[in-house]
Design a protein that fits this description.
Layout (H helix, E strand, L loop, with lengths): L11 E4 L5 E11 L2 E13 L10 E3 L4 E6 L5 H27 L1
Antiparallel strand pairs: 1-2, 1-5, 2-3, 3-4
């Protein structure tokens, strides 16, 4: 996971191998079926948006091929990023500890 490259909420991207754009709607998300895998981002297809709770996209920063639009950045977002980075490091560390202990 790349802790210093979280893009802002609302960023519109194209994922490698994708044909539809995706919009970032959240960070540090687990797949319900695989609680041991943390994804950098959650999102929805763009421009359609969230059509169903079963259509949430989960992806990592390295899967992003192209950025079309960078989401809103202000002081609040800038203050949030270090907290997000720290949280992601803690969760990733816990996951690594659990997988080594299993």
């Amino acid at each position: 996971m790349n802790y210093d490259k979280y893009l802002p909420i609302g960023t519109v991207v194209l994922l490698r191998g994708g044909t539809k754009k995706a919009m970032i709607t959240g960070f540090c998300t687990f797949d319900n079926a695989h609680q041991d895998k943390l994804y950098d981002y959650s999102g929805c297809i763009y421009p359609e948006g969230m059509l169903s709770s079963k259509q949430v996209l989960l992806f990592n920063h390295e899967q992003i091929e192209k950025i079309f639009f960078l989401g809103y950045v202000n002081e609040e977002e800038k203050e949030f990023k270090p907290k997000l980075n720290e949280l992601a490091k803690q969760v990733e560390s816990q996951l690594n500890s659990q997988s080594q202990g299993a």
